Amino acid sequence: MLANEILGVCREGNDYWSTSAPKIQQIKKRLLASDQSPEEIFALVHDHYFQPLYTSLIGFLHFHGFGTEADKKVAFKWFQIAAETSDPATLYELGFCYWGGTGTNSDLSIALSLYEQAALGGFKLAQFSLGYAYFHGYGFEVNFQLAFQWFEKSAQAGYPIGQYYLARCYRHGLGTRRNTTKTLFWFMKSAEGGYIHARLKLAKRIYKGEGIQRDIHHSLRYLVASLKSDGSIPIVELEQILLNEP
Fold this sequence. Notes:
Elements: H1 2-11, H2 21-32, H3 38-46, H4 52-64, H5 72-83, H6 88-100, H7 108-120, H8 124-136, H9 144-156, H10 160-172, H11 180-192, H12 196-208, H13 216-229, H14 238-244
């Protein structure tokens, strides 16, 4: 059934539909590939409104105006209904709305409370977001130990940006002791997961031989991978990036 396929696309991978432009495009592409019109798809999904995951999907369709008029406030109401089941992903979705004031008034305290519920439920993006809030002092006092703990959970769950921030914690001794081996390990995991900043960091460390044998060709491999992800970096600036990327 198409609705089940769309839900599978929404929930797979390292990101989530509200925060990932590529994921949104992937979902829309799959929807448009159907022999059904957007309006028919919307009606099909809406027929399952009583099922929590479909309720969240209805919110997505309202959020992005697929098969219906785009309306962030209506989307927010559907996310509210879906979150009543305490499904971690929908709790995160609702928290994201409160965080940015999307379809409702911005309320950081409610957003973080929902993120925490989702994080405790094992949702890796919420775990990272909570760590990020502690790391930068959004809604909390800066607390590197708690930031480290949440980054570690999201990293172990396979979230590349969480892995990158965990590597930063090990590198600078934030919330934990400095550890060059673990710094390199988590930068590598994040780079392998496709996170561009991790690829740049790793390229720089390999290029300079920081904690690993210097290997220019290996370094360039990570840099080229970064360029494929972000075409805004000119080839002529390769060496400058390696030497100066913070």
